[in-house]
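In response to reviewer comment 3 from the previous cycle, which asked for concrete evidence that the modeling workflow produces usable outputs, we include below a single protein chain processed end to end. The sequence was submitted unchanged, and the resulting structure tokens are shown without manual editing.
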Amino acid sequence: MDKVFLIIKREYLVNVKKKSFLIMTLLAPFLMVLFLAVVVYIGQANNTEKKIAVIDESGLFQNKLKNTQDLSFHFFNPKESMNLKDSVFNTETINLLIEIPYAKDSLFSNLDHEISLIVKNDVDIHTKEYLTKTFRDVLEEKRLEVLGISPDHLAQSKSKVDFNVLSLSSNQRGDASLIKLSLASGLAYIVFMFIMIYGVRVMRSVIEEKNSRVVEVIISSVKPMQLMIGKIVGTALVALTQFVIWIALTLFLMTIYQTFTMNDIESIQTFQQGMDKIPNPDNLNQTIEVLFNLNYPFIIATFLLFFTLGYLFFSSFFAAIGSAVDNETETQQFTFLAIAPLMIGGYGSFTSLMTNPEGNILAALSIFPMTSPVAMVIRSPYEVPVWQWILAIVLLVGATVGMIYIAAKIYRTGILMYGKKASFKEIYKWLKY
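The workflow returned the following structure tokens.
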């Protein structure tokens, strides 16, 4: 164990002392906040006022189109149509021209598809959606007047059905599907990214040591198994150090940034979500209640267990790949074998959650060892039968031990092989040594 500890210590110190580690660890949170600031700035800078000329032959929309911060409406005589088109095309003093023909019947039915929006090149989606909604609302209001229906009575007659969901298994009231899906997405993303980024880092570390022949000196003092485990655990500690610094720095910078730009962020959120999407207070209370009633001990335990075992399983796999090849170019055919199960576990689980959360496919993905590190984490906010959870852990522990054993055998032979391209047939021979 002393030798393993020394290897872990060496692996940790070598990585955290690298300039690239220090630069990326300290720079990444600043880049994240800078990215947010750039997005906010672009959203603000791209908003320019558009002047919209309107030719309304029937006069239905006069005084019905209200100016906004970005759009201003100007009504013109139909005889000025050609001049306005020239203005749109050549001078840009008018950005858009809307031509509204005469209404041919009492319900203005022809206006549903005969209103023309004339632009020089294209119209942005936000403007088009706003105009479409505005014109639709005006036409509906006019038709209600013709039909003798009060808009207030029509609004009162509309019903917004919102089910009060009661889960018998958890005795919980409220629709928690969106909250659970969001939580599952975040946790699965962390597991997937952690395994991929730091599994590949283990692989690169093995390739570097192999090419520098340092491993020949190390392997004379420790067993290949001890070296591989020390490298995997050391890299995991490097990753945890980096995560802790990233989270602390990001929270600190985000707090400072929000203090100075709260108005800008709120304006963008308002633009994106729309004022009509403010949640009902009752629904908001139910959402908070659901959020606090989630089984966090189970979710955290599942995350830590499958996160750790999944990392050990796939890092062993990546270490074996690194020992079997001489450079990163040769790793492509093997790394796909690690990426594919994780992607199948992630995408397959989300697809199953959308269609049948209690189906056999999701259960199988969360039990099968190569997909369970992602699939069971995704499933953790939902109800998981105890026997499936225990079976998944037993199988994953067994698979991890087996993978470490197989990887150690490949590692033992491959780490000292130079100039020979590893094939699946060759690796199979190494397993029998």
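Confidence is low (pLDDT under 50) at residues 270-279. We consider this sufficient to address the reviewer's concern, and the full set will be provided in the supplementary archive.
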